Amino acid sequence: KPAARNEPQVSAGESKRIGVLTSGGDSQGMNAAVRAVVRMAIVRGCKPYLIYEGYQGLVSGGDKIRSASWNDVSNFLTLGGTLIGTARCMDFLKPEGRRIAVHNLIKHGIDTLVVIGGDGSLTGADTLRHEWPDHVKQLHDDGKISQQEADKYRNLMIVGMVGSIDNDLASTDMTIGASSALTRICESVDSILSTATSHRRAFVVEVMGRHCGWLAMNAAICTGADYLFIPEDPPAGDWETDMCEALKRTRSAGKRTSIVIVAEGAIDDKCNPIKSEFIKDVLTQRLGYDTRVTILGHVQRGGSPTAVDRYLATLQGAEAIEAILRATPDTPSPVIGILENKITTQPLKEAIALTKQVAKAIQDHDFQRAAELRPRSFLTQLETFREIDYYSPEGKDSLPADKRLRIGVIHVGAPAGGMNTATRSVVRLCVNRGHIALGIHNGFPGLMRGEIEVLDWLSVDSWTATGGSKLGTNRDQPDPQLGAIAYQLQRFEIEALIIIGGFEGFTGLLSLTKHRNEYPAFNIPMVLIPATISNNVPGTEFSLGSDTAVNVITNACDAIKLSASSNRKRVFMIEVQGGHSGYLATFGGLAGGATTIYIPEEGITLDRLNSDISHLREYYQRESGYSQGRVVLINEKASSFYSTDIVAKIYEAESGGFYACRSSNLGHLQQGGVPSPTDRVRANTLAVSTVNWIQDQCWKGMEIPYEGNLRLPSTELKRKYRGRVYVPSSRASTVIGILGSQIKFTPIEDLVSETDFKKRKPTKHWWYTARRLVDIVSGVGFDMATG
Ligand code: ATP
């Protein structure tokens, strides 16, 4: 258990001068990365410099290289694009241009660079580092720098951060900007869908991605598109006919629209480009569909960054400074990434070489290798899309009759973004494979009453982007009515149960598991797909809905801060949900730029309030001519003594007249709304894995001694047995979890010892390591005036 909040550590030992620049195509979150680099550098005792206009700024020098203060990066977090500018610099491609850059850097005393950009920019940075000693020698020989400077600036240190909307760098699961670009695409396609439905139109939507289909593929998954073209998976042969047949099938199932997503670099298996206009012509001529093309273009690069991009950039920016301080002249240039949900530092050269291999594999027509070189999840996601959104009418892809199952889906607990998306995917898979998907309405009470209906392919069509719970959900537990529940499971011949829910889903599943011996109907595979904004389900690092809620909090922080603009000095105390888990406050705080947060893991003490209030008083006193709203996030259960109102009143009472404090509660806003693309992607992935796992378990459960017309488990159980599937092991009750980039099923009984039932959360919090950054990048506990 974390004992107390970690105060930011100020290191005065280093006096490194660190330049930071953004280069190549811009991407949302680059500003957040620059902010984190600058602030972390100051906190760690270094001197940051902003380099304007990418490498052009290095070559031009002068006022393009400016020392940066804490406040120079205020307001950077929320803005898209790059505020320090970017450029494609031809001069830097030549050694002479790079020599000028070296000269300019030395003149400013900078021998460390953080470069935020794509693979071209990072290649350039690595080249500069290798050439640096030669340039230094030449500059000295030419009398441009002194011997002392030549000795002092013998080496250049480079750290790369990947800013790219394409998510195209091998060796990182996510690049800065990809999440925001995906969000922009999904917002656009969600909007297109309503007009397309009205007119029964087909839309061909072209998205960015010259060599990488990540954006297109994830957009197709998130929006429930009908067909997809990406460079890594070019269609072979007569793809026009295949596409038309696939679209005709979905229309025959009752869909009123057809959406085709095309990556701008889409090609066929002969590497001929597949163009949106050509697809449109095929659909118009062969199917007679009223077809429109929408090229999303630069919309995808725009807008405010998502929560993921903001906290990813912040965590990576902080790590970039740590990597600099750890490095020696022999350390290979690192690139900061994220793998398996952990911030990583890897050799930059290898990462770029691997990335280049993808383009080469595509050029060589080795498409399988191209896809394999992408992060592990890439191929799985591609399969996921095909399975869920291509419609296979009964008889085509479905399983033999004796392998078809009846699978129940139930929502339990409070609504969370992605519950409907996951349900849709389960239903679609079931229909395509020949299973029956049974929707259980209104949670466990609905199950007890038998409120169950078969869900078909079309009935769930719009569920991917719908918030709330379409099946109906509540927090009631199965315990009082276990007999009635067993009866309904038996009556509807439910052979596997999928519970989509939060901690109540967890305790509900545990309860059914404990009573397996009493009720034979409970001896079926059961899976909990964690879905709760609080992200407090044991067995997973992320539950569905948590990303949507963090985005709601982030957007609220942006809006509330703006309300304090003009001349108001206000601190806003915003209460967020999360139960006894501080996850939402922590990641909402990181992404929303909160000054500090109060979470149950730390509690609230008067000492802590005193120190935070002193910080704010000093801040507003010092910044007298400068007005900006500050946000403090407080979890609903941060303290059993100090409520949000009390904390807000203490803040105001002790303000010394330097600021006012207002409180607000985001409440149920956090549970509703359109699920974020991240939650939609996770929902799809979890649903596919769940159905696959259930099939395996059920089919194994059928491999039992055969007696007469029934497959019976054994004579002694014959009396009790009621159906085909009989899985008496309690280990068939599992929680599916996202652990790093792995999907894992953990028997619920193994999670009991890792669960704090009183506080309704896991005993360990993987995310707590990110908590201290909230205060570091906001300046709490650090003297910004002297920084
Ligand atoms: P995007 O993903 O948007 O294409 P990128 O960083 O790959 O981003 P590039 O246009 O390839 O974008 O590179 C940006 C700048 O980096 C170039 O204009 C050039 O100044 C520099 N650069 C790129 N490749 C090299 C190289 N091989 N050597 C030196 N500098 C390079």
From TrEMBL:
EC number: 2.7.1.11
EC category: transferase
Keyword Transferase: yes
Annotated keywords: Transferase
Domain of life: Eukaryota
Protein name according to UniProt: 6-phosphofructokinase, alpha subunit
Gene: PFK1
Region of the whole protein represented: 218 to 1004 of 1037
